[in-house]
Amino acid sequence: MDHHTRSAYCTVVNKADNTKYLCFLHTKAGVLNVGLTNASNVWITDFTKESLSQHMKEYGLKSIEGYVSKIRSSSGNGCATVCLEENRLVLQLESMPGAMTMALLRLSEPEGREVLRDLLFRMADCLTHLDNTGNVKSFVSSEFEPRRQQTGPVVAVRKRVPGDSLINPGTRRLKRVPTGVAFDDSDDL
Fold first, then answer.
1. For the chain, how many structural domains are there in total?
2. How far apart are CA 75 and CA 11, in angstroms?
């Protein structure tokens, strides 16, 4: 995996028919490319530095992180529309300032299969890296971080000291001296 490449992933659900797509964003040498897949077909943008800059300027985006954030927030809010045409896909993301539209070209079968293979291994490498470090720092891996639900104030649990009562914590359990059983040898016949 190229360490100068940054990746981000999210799920896009077409609000028209609830079809799910995996959206993958790869930044390499300052150029962001966006791809969508339904696990059998792959569509991808073919931005150059100039065309990406023009696209970002058109939609008032100042950074690649802002671009990624806009795609994630729009797709996470269910504000995405996917329109399939003959050999391309048009992705429209609606948000408060305005809608962002981009056209993605469909890759041929061998190219698409290679992109899917690369995508699968990038995601696996990302998860392996998370497992090894346990450290989530970049926008790339936060997608895989488990969501935590806050259920209320956290109460510290006091460690039980040996001898404390399980039923009434804070009181000591009384230990009785073992008395044993007295056997009488005279009763034997």
1. 1
2. 7
Comparing CA positions, the residue from 56, 55, 20 lying closest to residue 39 is 20
Residue 157 lies in a domain: no
Residue 14 gets which letter from DSSP? B
The confidence score (pLDDT) of residue 25 equals: 86
Residue 164 is classified by DSSP as B
φ, ψ (nearest 5 deg) of residue 161: -90, 140
Range of the domain at 96: 5-144
At residue 182, the pLDDT reads: 74
Structural domain includes residue 186: no
CB-based contacts of 165, cutoff 8 Å, min separation 6: 171, 172, 173
DSSP codes of every residue in 52-94: HHHHHHHTT--SHHHHHHHHHHHHHTT-EEEEE-SSEEEEEE-
Q: Which residue has the higher pLDDT, 24 or 68?
A: 24
Domain CATH number, residue 90: 2.170.210.20
